[in-house]
Amino acid sequence: MVGSGKLTKRTLNLYLPLTAFVIFLLFPFYWMIIVSLKPTPDLFDLKFNPFWIQHFTLENYFYLFQNTDFPEWVMNTIIVTVSATSISLVCSVLIGYALARLRFPGSNFLGVGIFLAYLVPPTLLFLPLAQVIATLGLYNTYWALILTYPTQLIPFASWLLMGYFRTIPKEIEESAMADGCTRLATLVRIILPLSVPGLLSAGIFCFTLCWNEFLYALIFMSSGPMKTIPVGTVSDLIKADTLFWGALMASAVLGSFPIAILYSFFVKHYVSGLTAGAVKG
Amino acid sequence: MDEQKKGKGHSSLSALLTTPVSRRGLIKAGGIAAVGLAAGGSLPRQVFGQAPAAIKGTKLAILQGTYFIPTAQDLYKKQAQEWGKASGVTVATDFLNWPDLQPKIAAAVQAGGVDIIELWPVWNFLYQNSLLDLTDMAEEVGRKGGGYETFVLNSCKVKGRYLGIPFGHSGTAVNYRISWFKEAGVANADDGRKLDMTWDEYFAIGKKLKAKGKPFGQALGHSTGDPQSFCYPYMWCNGAMEVEKDGKTVAFNKPQFVDAMKRFIQAWKDAYDETGTSWDDSNNNRAFLAEQISSTINGASIYWVAQKNHPAIAKDTNHMLFPRGPAGRFYQMGSRTFAILKNSKNIPAAKEFLKWWFQDKQYDEWWRLQGGYHLQHTLRLAKDSMWDKDIKMTSFREQPKYGRLQGYAGDPTEKASLAWSKYIVVDTYAKAVQSGDATGAIKWGAEQLQRIYG
Amino acid sequence: MTEEGNRPSPASVPFGEVCFIMAVGLSPAAESLPSRGGILARAKNLLERQASLGIILMIPGVILLMVFMAYPFFLGIWLSMSDSMIGRIGRFIGLRNFADLLTDSIFLQTMRNTFTYALITVPFKAVLGLGLALALNNRMRFSNPMRAVVMMPWIVPTALSTLGWFMIFDPVFSPISWLLRQMGVINKNINFLGDPGLAISMLCLVNIWRGIPFFGITILAGLQAVPQELHEAAAIDGANAWHRFRHVTIPAIKGIALIASLLSIIWTFADFQLIYILTKGGPANQTHIFGTYAYQIGLSATEIGMGAAIALYMFPILSVFAMLLLMYLRKED
To answer: Would you kindly state where each structural domain of chain A is located, as residue ranges?
Structure first.
């Protein structure tokens, strides 16, 4: 293996395209970071090179913490996201298992129904939904979101988990049940451990969607300190016809990088879980 | 004065968690501590009068759009808390980004959750079925203020009734750079109060300035403020309107307007920054403060920010009245109102609060803090000394005289709102400047208006 | 060349939809245990029998979906067939809203825009996602941080990342305009969001940017599941990189890529936040899609009946794509 030839080939086929991707995908984040570290007058001074920082400042981050309820937004978002994801995963595991392994009356109908539920857009649902939320007295409470987000998450997560459950050979469960294990026990002790990659995929998907969500969070829970990060950012940092770009970008940065770091751990398990599955098979 | 009954010491957050809005009315005295308060606090009885005992311990939710002037928003919050403390009512004030207001109001109208809402002009027509009739209170406010301004009278009565109490609106003027106007040979450029020109004269100035790299700026995108501030008046100034007085006959496709549109298309190329078709309400502010444009139609927000961050530009900035056309001078302007939703669970407290807030002491302080950014609702304030503090702001007080609302010459009904929300008038201009075809664009606009009004 | 063994290949693992119909149709035969007396025993019995257990397990999720989705959905259907406005319950008018929309030139433009938006972005996302997946499929340093980092566009709340793009596309302050002007390529600022052709292109660009990670990571999982032996076997047989790509890689990920594409079409059709922040459907309705137009009519103009009708127009179209998906899955059995 000749050294330099291999390196150039690798550079051409791998590093160049990869670099291009990374630049395209990350440039807006680079932009968000440097905007958040510049003082506002600099942003609109056309003499300056917009790609560098001329005067480094943390004032936007201070503004975010001192003049807005940013910490509350983060807490609200975490509470809603973790709870809604948990509920969705539990429901999806149950539904996925039921549709993958069990035959029961109405399974066809329910299966297709859940599939179709996926096609209904929130922009249609939110107004009638507001009525439901009000009737149940959930307005401006965490429950308003914790109970409505799963409707956007369960359909997709159920399919995902159904697929994982299907790939587990029935023989394992059948032998366990022949040994006296109940069905539910096989679900918990056999199927779930083998479906960790699926659970992670579903979990990541649910988490992202909840963290991202805007419309329901705006309508059902946005009074006073009860705002999530996207809603709070838009409502408090856009004043009439003036956008506070520095603080806006600071909020975007702080609201997303911790998640990215969290993801880097999960991605490792996600992909390795799949490859482990391949090797085992 | 009423002592504040301490609750269980819940934080505001848990109070919101454990006391859903729909049970508000059932919570009696001995319950919740007011939001963010220290204990005690009594205020002179004569300031607040006798708050009815029935509202003690209840909650009130107020929804508004975010203020441009943060100190005024903070003052409003402070005033609301003051009143709440003294009356034993927990007041929550929420401020949302302007485009997000309507969905929130829609949800509140359908399902409750808000007591007092800020209505922009025409919204009192849109939501009329859901608003409490406040005619008595509103007429009282008008009477005490020496009569309402023209734009209030033109915009706030729905079938003769006040469905909210008018409180004025933010102003809108032609902002311009003094030194650059001087370069273009405008006499009296120093004093905006003396400038009185026609649209064609205004365009001519722009042509000279664009040639020097300093064009005018105008938003023609899908935004709720600046585009309409220009498009509707220019249409009215040139003899066209959406409908006749009967509210049915579309009067948009008039030859004078087509000609005027042709001149505007030319001006767009000669005098304006042509990226304006993508501008929303915030672009012209940024462009002006970055010295990229020499004149634009905007409220006082540009000048206000300039005074804080760009003093040199502030010194060189002034305001003038809108140019006029053959049919006169017009502003697309109505008054906003504070309304009470019919499905509110706390109407007595809402009424008490509004009665209190519209008293001179509260309103005047709030209004003066904005330094002319917000136009007055009553004639008394048109003569207020605040207007003389900064002569660059003085011309603003004239604006309410010229205010007309969408739907002119008919009433500002929901049809006018539909035409507004569909951006029909604004899109007519956008199409015209994109295609260069004034006749075709106006024809399209007229057809769209016919679908709505006809 | 197939990868069938006793066990279905993990290549089909990431998406349950592959097995959805199989699962529904081929569940093992019901078992039953001998019934015993007593309530506890009865309960245990219920939990053992497939028929009852199945229903019990479905209940939590189904209840949530019924209360918070099905019921509002049917309410929405009723709204679309009425002339309701916000705060005013209307009368039933049948399909008149739907018929009116077909004569509304703005609505027809909205339909065209939505199809353009979805049918342009999805192929780009798929191809670029494939490229990204191929790149990430190589052993290299920092592969895990790299994989996390490329997911960023998808992770960050759309409401916030789109504001960043809004700034990048600013008519006066865009850094891209600045750069191109410095390089002498242009002499006027680019009207990214105000020029008719550019506006929808920029929206597609941001949508593609946001969607690449989804395709990338998903196809990557599929690529990783292709056993190394297959590549080695093909290489021994004399296949070069391109042949291996065509005959080993592509078949392995075809299923996943197609499913991801169909899902992406559905999501893109129903998009809202991105367009709303950047253009709100302007200039002159050239970037309106179903979601934004429904919002404008239903909420700004308060014609909620008409707004619901606009939103529901999406449903049959999305169902067609969904049926295509189902048909493909059935075929693969």
So the answer is: 77-280
Q: How far apart are CA B70 and CA B348, in angstroms?
A: 29
* B341 DSSP assignment: B
Residue A175 has pLDDT above 50, yes or no: yes
**C: neighbours with 3+ CB pairs under 8 Å?**
A, B
Q: What letter does residue B324 receive in the DSSP assignment?
A: B
Taking alpha carbons only, the member of B173, B142, B139 closest to residue B397 is B173
What is the Cα–Cα distance from C301 to C117, expressed in whole angstroms?
Answer: 25
Please report which helix (H) or strand (E) contains residue A131, including its range.
helix A122-135
Is CATH 3.40.190.10 the right assignment for the domain spanning C95-332?
Answer: no
**Closest by CA position to B253, among listed B270, B238, B268:** B238
Q: Structural domain of residue B361, as residue ranges?
A: 12-170+336-376
Q: B351, B376, B401 — which closes off a domain? A: B376
Half-sphere exposure of B146 (CA within 13 A, CB side): 9
Rounded to a whole number, what is the largest CA-CA distance in chain B?
Answer: 71
> Does the beta carbon of B223 lie under 8 angstroms from any beta carbon of chain C?
yes
Contact B77, B93 (CB under 8 A): yes
Q: How many CB pairs under 8 A join A and C?
A: 355
The reply to whether B5 falls in a domain is no
* DSSP conformation class of B53: G
The whole-angstrom separation of Cα C177 and Cα C202 is 14
What is the per-residue pLDDT for B53?
A: 66
Rounded to whole angstroms, how far apart are CA atoms A277 and C13? 9
Instruction: Name the DSSP letter for residue C28.
Output: P
Q: Output the CA–CA distances (angstroms, integers) from residue B182 to A208, B1, B188, B317, C276, in the order listed.
A: 56, 61, 8, 12, 40
Does the N-terminal peptide bond of residue C72 adopt cis geometry, omega within 30 degrees of 0? no
d(CA B356, CA B51) in angstroms, rounded, equals 10
**Of A35, A121, A255, which has the smallest distance from its Cβ to C160's Cβ?**
A255
Please indicate whether, in this complex, the C-beta atoms of C159 and A214 are within 8 angstroms of each other: yes
Q: Whose structure tokens read 């693992």?
A: C13
Is the separation of the CB atoms in C23 and A162 below 8 Å?
A: yes
The rounded distance, in Å, linking the Cα atoms of B250 and B217 is 30
Contacts 24+ apart (CB under 8 A), B367-372: B367/B168, B369/B69, B369/B71, B369/B72, B369/B75, B370/B69, B370/B72, B371/B69, B371/B300, B371/B304, B372/B171, B372/B300, B372/B396, B372/B397
Do B192 and B144 sit in the same domain of this protein? Answer: no
pTM: 0.80
How far off is chain C from B291, nearest CA to CA, in Å? 10
- With a cut of 90, say whether residue C108 has pLDDT above it: yes
Low-confidence residues in chain B, pLDDT < 70: 1-53
Cβ–Cβ gap C191/B277 under 8 Å: yes
Where do the domains of chain C lie? 13-80, 95-332
Residues B285 and B432 in one domain: yes
Please tell me which of the candidates C87, C173, C191 has its beta carbon nearest to residue B127.
Answer: C87
For the cut 50, the answer to whether the pLDDT of residue C291 exceeds it is yes
B283 at C interface, C-beta within 8 A: yes
- Report the share of chain A in percent with pLDDT over 90: 17
On whether both B94 and B182 belong to a single domain, the answer is no
What's domain A77-280's superfamily in CATH?
MetI-like (1.10.3720.10)
Do residues B139 and B279 both lie within one domain? no
For the stretch C62-105, pLDDT in tens is 898 888 988 888 888 998 999 988 888 889 999 999 999 999 88
